[in-house]
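Following up on my earlier thread - several people asked me to post the actual chain instead of describing it. Fair enough. Here it is, all 189 residues.
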Amino acid sequence: MDYISTDKKLRSMLSPDRYRHSKGVEELAVALALHWGADVQKAKMAGLLHDLAKNLDRDTCKRIIETMNADPLIKESCSLWHGPIGAYLLKKEFGIDDDEIYDAVYYHTIGKLGMSLLTKIIYVADAIEINRDAYFDWAPDCRKIAMENLDKAVLEVTDRTILSLIDRKLKINPTCILLHNEALLLTQK
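Reply from S.P.:
Thanks for posting it. Predicted structure:
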């Protein structure tokens, strides 16, 4: 499927606000890919499609996530389903069979240890794209950090996520803590 067809199909699947966010992630992902030397076309596609499952109904999501070998904490938190389900639907709905794009879409919300450059870019871009400024007052500063040191931006996004989970008294996936530690070590090199 070409980019124009992909974009048109995605637009029909998402709410206007979610589509605007996806376009913002795409734009920032391309800028970060150009800056850090990642594959620009993969960043463009992963940024655009990262939330492709976000507006699916809960029953469809539940049916799909139960067939996947996802982390148990992901399976019990429906707010995290859209990453793994989106990755699953990349090939089925959009004909995209690329491990790097799959990984970036799958982990764009939760992150993982040893993230590839593309996965880091989508993880960060999702949190700090321009439309997030209305929700996260720290996003503009983090965009500057992302252009200076991508690992510092990963650390900032991870730490903000952890603090938000603590504030809302929600479970923290242990991978978040490990990701914090890994990003901290990478920023100290």
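The chain is about 70% helix and 0% strand. That should answer part of your original question.
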